[in-house]
Amino acid sequence: MTSTQPYSANFLRDVFVLTGRALRVTVRVPFAVIPNLVISLFFLFVYQGGLSGIAAMPSFHGASYLNFILPVAVVSGAVGGAGSSGQALVRDLETRYFTKLRLTPVSRTALVLAPMIAGMLQLVVQTILILFVGWLMGLHVPTGFAGLVVVVIYAAGWGLAFAGYSVASALRSKNGQAAQAATFIFFPLLFLSDTFVPISLIHAHWMRIAAHINPTTYVFNAMRAVLETGWSTRPLLEGALAIAILACITLGFAVYTATRTLRRA
Q1: Which end of the chain is more exposed for a tag (fewer CB within 10 A), N or C?
Q2: Angle (nearest 5°) at CA 88 between 82 and 94
Q3: pLDDT tens digits for range 176-201
Q4: Domain range spanning residue 76?
């Protein structure tokens, strides 16, 4: 097996096996991911309960505030859940399991990619649970089941992008708390956006500028399009582009950091 054939059957097998192991470790330690789900649902309940009255404003065009605020719970879960990828890698570093794997012919790329995929799959399950709770709260989606699938796909892509940054932070710090804390620098992105109201209702000029250049805004808009109005091409494309750009940056950072770390080791 060689690491110079990243698309070979051996590489795919390595990714599959290591991802399966990472998922099994997560199942054995559920408290590593449950708090993030609880916090996301807490945000959903509080925002819906305390702010739903503003949906009566003309700028909402009669849309349900639950449909408007649900993407906030999903995206905040993606940012918080991304830290689990870095923490899983740190656990392997601390137990020297990562060192043992490096002595085997397993693909070096798979060593880094597997925890990121595992984190993304955890986020998919979390997003499905959030959508189910939203359905219990009265969520009605004009695009039907297909629209919910689109929300899950966008959440998975957003989570994978943040997982790349989390893994890179874990490799650089080799500390689980530091890797988790590193993802919190992205939480301002959630609030410097059209988080609670449409951009047209944001009066502070600097916040409107921040919202327009914030990639989170376009992910929110893509999810809200399928949850509120239907299939709108522009917000879906803009959301996909925002995810692709961020993913390229963070995954490139993760690969660069992993290459330097393994070379020094």
Answers
A1: C
A2: 140
A3: 666 666 666 677 777 888 888 888 88
A4: 9-264
